[in-house]
Structure formats: structure tokens, C-alpha cells
């Protein structure tokens, strides 16, 4: 299904709250290749925002611009109330960035990595040791604190990386594909860490190719393809964009089944299972309409199940199947 005809969820016409991250018309090109082609974002504080897209869609480029690592060619961007172009120092003071490749120095211990970060943030020695000890404990790294970071597992290195990021107490954290290469247990541990950060009031900007990850964590998701945002909304809103959702009603009484088939429109019958399938976008209004029609006819279904497309379907429909999305190994 071409992304150009995909409807977008409507945003409220009311006033928007001050954004932790906002962009208007953000553009970036390398030579004749346009990587970001006019990106508009509005991310509320204390939320998880996921930028979802295939390889080469522009996710990492967006993070690099917003974290002041590179400059945009056009448009505007503000992070924590600071313009990324005119007040980069203000942005850097408010953010933390963790990439898919760990910034941990494997030649020194986990504790020494933390203390080095404390020095970079100009903390006193006593403050640095206190903050390092607190964060190592929080991320379950106290027992490994005196060991070289090169001996850490992938999940431990990622936890240490985020702990180092938190030394400066950032209000906004950019996590660029933070669970790439992690085993399922480490991935779920990372999800718990991200949820804990948000419960502390931190805003998390997450880029990922793991569809399950976006579904689990994100308050809002934007799908980026060929440098453009092709859809944005909650996971449920995005799932409702894709055809194929339906309500399935099952009956044990053949008479009730036949009466329901007559009372409802556009049903697909399964006479052997005494089940009816009705197209539905999964919205409460549509479900209420189906139940009201049954109630008016004095019919009660024995079982009702709702089926909606998942983010896999959304991803392939919006990106045209340009890349195979990653799934968490179960």
C-alpha cells in the first residue's frame, strides 16, 4: 500500500503543551541524497517518543541534529526550550545521548568510567563518587564496578552507558537503537530502565527498528520513510490506519447465530463455527454500534474478540516493505 495515500491521525486543534522536543520543516541532505525532507515533531515532556523506520530512513540523522552533533540544512528545532542552532550549549546541558554502539571505555573499570563522566560534568570528587555509587547500584552494576568494562556482557555495557549518561541529570535522553544486539532478557531489562526514567520525569526519544519495542514503550510513534514522517500517533491509532481489523462474534445457539447474521451488516459467516466476522477499525464507537444492534434485536453473543493489525502490518504498509523490520526473539 503506497505511503502517499495513507491517512494520518488528526491532532487536536487545541493549544499544545510546551514541547520537550519540537521541529518544524527539518531538512538534511548529503550531496544529492535528501535524508530528512521536512520533519515536524512535537514531543511532550515526560513521555516516550519512538521514531520507527527502516535502515537509511533518517532516524540517526534526526538524533544527531537534535543533539547538536551535526547541523540541519533547513527548518527549526528546539530541545528543552533551546534552539539547536543558536543555543547548542543550552541543548547539551539538558540532554543525554546513548547510541547503539556503546561509548564505554573497555580498558577501565565500570566505576572509573562513571568517575570520568563525573569529571567531565565538573562534579567534585566527593560528589562524583556519590553519584557514581548511586547509579551503579541503580543499574545493578555494583558487584562489577571494580572489573574492566571489557569483561561486561552486552546488556551490562548498555546499562553502564545509560548510567554514564545520567551523571549529568539530563531532562531529555536520546536512545538511538539502544537494544540492538541484546538478547531478549537484556532487552526487557532495558525496557524496565526506560520506563523507570520516564517515571522520574525524563523525556525519552527512542529510535528503533524493533516493532515490539515501540509498541511496548512509546506514548507516540512516528514512522519515518525516505526522509518523511508518513504517519504519527499512538500505537493503537497507527494500527487502525491499516485495513483488516475486525470483530469476531461466536455463538453456541444456531438460532441466535442466524438472527445475528440478519441483524448485522457486512458480515462474513462461518456456519461451521457459528461465528460472524464484522469489519471494524477497533474504535469504541464502532464496537458500541455492533453491540447496540445486537441488543436491539435481543441477541447476545457468547464470545466477542477484536482483531486489529499489528505494528508489523503498519510498518510494511507505510514503508512499502523497503526493509525487513526486526522482531524481538521469543
Walk me through what this model shows.
The chain has 330 residues and is α/β, with parallel strands linked by helices. It has 11 helices and 14 strands. It has a 6-stranded mixed β-sheet, with helices on both faces. A 4-stranded antiparallel β-sheet has the order 2-1-4-5, covered by helices on one side. Helix 3 packs parallel to helix 5. The N terminus and C terminus are likely disordered.
The count of DSSP E runs of length 2 or more, i.e. the number of strands, is 14
How helical, in percent, are the residues? 25-40%
Counting H and I runs of at least 4 residues, what is the number of helices? Answer: 11
The average pLDDT value, as a whole number, equals 86
Element order: H for helix, E for strand: EEEHEEHEHHHEHEHEEHEHEEHEH
User: Can you summarize the main beta sheet?
Assistant: 6 strands, mixed
Low-confidence stretches: 1-15, 322-330
Q: How much beta, percentage-wise?
A: 15-25%
Distance linking N and C termini: 28 Å
Structural class: alpha/beta
Q: Write out the strand line-up for the largest beta sheet, numbering strands in chain order.
A: 6-7-8-3-9-10
How large is the radius of gyration? 24 Å
Provide keyphrases for this structure.
disordered N terminus, 6-stranded mixed beta sheet, 4-stranded antiparallel beta sheet, elongated, 11 helices, disordered C terminus, 330 residues
Compact overview of the structure:
The chain is of the alpha/beta class and 330 residues long.
